[in-house]
Amino acid sequence: MKRKHSICKWKGILFALLWTVSLGTFAQTVTVRGTVVDDTGLTVIGASVVVESNRTIGTITDIDGKYVLENVPSEGKLTFSYMGMQTQTVTVAGRTTIDVTMKSDDKVLDEVVVVGYGVQKKANLTGSVASLQAEALEARPVASVSAAMAGTMPGVTTIQSSGAPGAQTGTITIRGKNSINAASPLVIVDGVPGSMNSIDPQDIESISVLKDAASSAIYGVQAANGVILITTKKGKAGQSARVNYSGLVSWASPTARLNFLGAADFAMLYNEATRNENPNAPLPFSDKDIQKFRDGSDPIGHPDTDWYNAVMKKRALETQHNVSISGGSESTTYMASLAYLFQDGLSQEKSYDRYNGRINLDSRINKWVSVGLNASAYRGTDQDEFEGFASLLQYVNRIPPTFGIYDKDGNFKYDGLNNPVAHQGRTGLYRNIDQQIHATASLTLTPIEGLSIKGVYSLRHDARDQRKFKKHLEYGKFNSGKREGYHNYYNWNWYTSQLLVNYNKTFDKHTIGLLAGAEQVEYTYRYTETSRTGGGSDDLPESLNTLDASSQKNLDGGHETARLSYFGRIQYDYENKYLFEANMRADASSRFPKDNRWGFFPAFSAGWRLSEEAFIKDRFDWLSNFKLRLGWGRTGNEELKSDDIYPAVPTYAYNAKNRLTMFGNTLYSTVHESRYVNSNLKWATVTNYELGLEAAFLNNMVGFELSLYKKRTNDMLLYLPVQGVIGMNPPAQNAGNVENTGFDLSVFYNNRINKDFRYSVNFNVAYVKNEITNMFGTEGKDPDNEKIWRLEGHPIGSFYGFVADGYFNTEEELKNHPKRLGSEKLGDIKYKDVNKDGKITAGDDRSVIGKNFPSWTGGLNVGLYYKDFDFSMLWQGAFDVDAYYTMEAAYSFFNSGKVLKRHLDRWTPENHNASYPRITRNSQTNYAVSSFWLQDASYVRLKNISFGYTLPKQLLGKAGIDRLKVFVSGENLLTFSGLDGLDPESPSDTRGAFYSNVKKVSLGLKMTF
């Protein structure tokens, strides 16, 4: 009986336990309902409510701000989120009713942006500053920062003219060109001058662009063309070590290529061109020849060679990898990264690889002493053959399809034009190794609250080792001549010292910020160039010693410059409503005469946040931000010719060997003064006027920023002509004026449809009118390009030539219309008689026919986010810009070369509406610079498109992975342009022998653990 009683007892206990467990099981989930309102009491429609531990359980609030959510863990947490509101997480704690009041998310306004020598709240900016965060670079298959900036910021024009390995960089111009000498902005990396294209994009935290003088005048003489501030990533205090990996593989192919005709059409047009020049000339190709070219029945005697496909790859492989570790204690943070980039080329020998390393350390020794170290290094190797890609492509663009690669014996064929297949990989060696070490150390003292004293010292060393070796190449009757060897070394060094004193304090409703600083930059450049010719061996391309020692030539030299600067800034705001800022910088440069060495560059700006005024804030609760700003400032420019380092010092040159001087009975080598010195030379100045308006609505759901500006360059540095009898080169003088007028506009819209889906749209557009207002009598052609002229009343980069006015279609027109040469024939280009004097002359009938820089630029960035999927696309465009094509890219049979597909639509007695004049072989009648050869280079391009998927954390936890994202990305996949065969970002005056932009398809992976 006892045993039976005992069994019953244990059964009872077990039943009680099961009952308790089952009750607990059913008690784990509850139904929660409630209402969500904002901090003004208005209901929030469409707010997302999800269970933090299981985001598949969620809902959104209805039109009354109410929600009901079932199966909520009683001890779990709910996350409430809405665009423009601060995300809140609330513990359920068994409750079935949870009402939430959401606060406005002012992170858009409280966002801190990097400015000159510091940071500042975006809401309190009084200057024009655009910024780009690291997320914008995450899925871009770009090797350089400059290329990634295209289309992302209004007023920042980025032109990427090449897709070559190691040269996929952008030329950046901010709000138009201020000078005919240079337009490149100053680049600051982590507070000191640096290089943007040597940084791995995955190492970047943010990019700020200072577009007006109010924001950039703190950099004085270096800021005339704007300033780009790059901040690299750092560790976070109190965060355990995190390892990040980013990698992708890409396949690159040309965005455009010249469309040449095959052998049959080439022969047909060749016959026609022969007869157009001489009606009695025998035809080079018979009908039977043309048919054999067309049907391929005689590949040796009548080849139809596609030279491009014979030489170039269809696509090239690229790969990028970056691994970093970051973290920190409460007093010390760290970030270290290693990166590798490889880019294969479209030709056999072209390639580039780059290694990057970086370490950023910050440590607080005690409550008033901090130290920091930023160090980076990179090594980039650019390889090609001796003649280079451009020469190889020029051979491809020139040699006719009627020429064969091989003769009947299988040897390379030479028919008077270089055979690109024979040359590829056989002309020799070109290798360029660039290396950089950049280290910046800082010490910061904070003796009292609000006051910091920071000392900075930076060393940047760049080195280049360049080797070239020309092999001896011989095939057919071609002989490349003697072997040649070159070995060149170049070294650049920058030494930067800074002392910065900051004081920031809030007194009741008043906030002030004071900055005082000094900076010294020393720069040195050294080079050594050596060469030998003759002798040697093709098997020993690395050594000059094998070549003829008697032919050796050596050259070395260098220069040094220095700059000393003092600067200061005052910032003041009252109740975050009334904002004021003043900047002053004084710069002294060793490049200017002692009496004019110092330049002073002030700037003043003010802002009024009307949205913080009670009469606005209390009436218009839908207005999140409304700010007016006004600025004036002056920056400087010291841009001279690259070889004009010391314009204030007399320059001497050795007399040539045939100009020796005799003293007594002996001839001596002497020197002579080669250039005048201008002792009055001073800085060029750029004065900027700015009016800005910023607004945001509906809790920062939608908004815009508009800036109107005028920039005026005075005392531009020009080289005015002097009388030839003087016999010396002219000195630089302060003589030219340039004006830029325009606006920048950016618009954003962010919205969340439900808990799973949100989207964002960002649009920007900019316009600039550039005009040379005074050239002080030096109007005329650009010394480096006869198609470009510098003329008052017109933009920098204006094409100058005759105005095409159709063709000579009839004998009557040929007889009565003025002619340029007098030997024109039917089908030749007819030019407009601009001054109506009955003659076509270069002096009176040429005018500005176009320009090489766009007036309008824009970008559209769209992002879609659904659960763990993300999709983005970036469109970019430029408008009101022209390109001028010449030689192989435009003319038929140029230099004994090819014909393009467009040449089929040539003028004939039956086709007067042709797009090309009468076809010719040797005549240059129609080659005069004119509007006929000018093309509209406006375009719209799908700059990037990306689709990604982030794996759920539940799947990653066991593997110790915090985040894993896979994505596919495309770069430059679509381009809409009126250009034929050339990329719209290609050089604006070209014959087509350059490495085209490339489009890429990439697969990528990002992982954090």
How would you explain this protein's 3D organization?
It is a single chain. This protein is mostly beta strands and 1009 residues long. 10% of the residues lie in helices and 48% in strands. The chain has a 22-stranded antiparallel barrel. Strands 10-15-16-13-14 form a five-stranded mixed sheet. Helix 5 packs antiparallel against helix 6. It starts with a helix and ends with a strand. The N terminus is likely disordered.
Number of strands: 53
Distance between the termini: 63 Å
What is Rg? 34 Å
The biggest beta sheet reads: 22 strands, antiparallel, barrel
Q: What count of helical segments does DSSP give?
A: 12
| Overall pLDDT confidence | 90
> What is the helix fraction of residues, given as a range?
under 10%
| Overall body shape | globular
Uncertain residue ranges: 1-27
Q: Supply the helix-strand structural class.
A: mainly beta
**In what range is the share of β-strand residues?**
over 45%
Which labels suit this protein?
mainly beta, five-stranded mixed beta sheet, 12 helices, 53 strands, disordered N terminus, 1009 residues
Describe how the helices and strands are arranged.
Layout: H1 2-27, E1 29-38, E2 48-51, E3 54-60, E4 66-73, E5 77-81, E6 88-91, E7 100-102, H2 107-110, E8 112-115, E9 118-121, E10 129-133, H3 145-148, E11 156-159, E12 171-174, E13 186-189, E14 192-193, E15 204-210, H4 213-216, E16 227-232, E17 242-254, H5 263-277, H6 287-295, H7 307-311, E18 316-328, E19 332-344, E20 351-366, E21 369-384, H8 388-398, H9 420-423, E22 428-445, E23 451-470, E24 474-475, E25 478-479, E26 484-507, E27 510-533, E28 553-574, E29 578-589, E30 598-609, H10 614-617, E31 623-637, E32 651-654, E33 661-663, E34 666-668, E35 671-675, E36 684-697, E37 702-719, E38 732-752, E39 757-774, E40 780-782, E41 785-790, E42 798-802, E43 804-807, H11 811-816, E44 829-831, E45 846-851, E46 856-866, E47 869-879, E48 882-885, E49 934-936, E50 939-950, H12 953-956, E51 963-977, E52 989-990, E53 998-1008
Parallel strand pairs: 1-7, 13-16, 48-52
Antiparallel strand pairs: 1-4, 2-3, 2-5, 5-6, 8-9, 10-15, 11-12, 13-14, 15-16, 17-18, 17-53, 18-19, 19-20, 20-21, 21-22, 22-23, 23-26, 24-25, 26-27, 27-28, 28-29, 29-30, 30-31, 31-36, 32-35, 33-34, 36-37, 37-38, 38-39, 39-46, 40-41, 41-42, 42-45, 43-44, 46-47, 47-50, 48-49, 50-51, 51-53
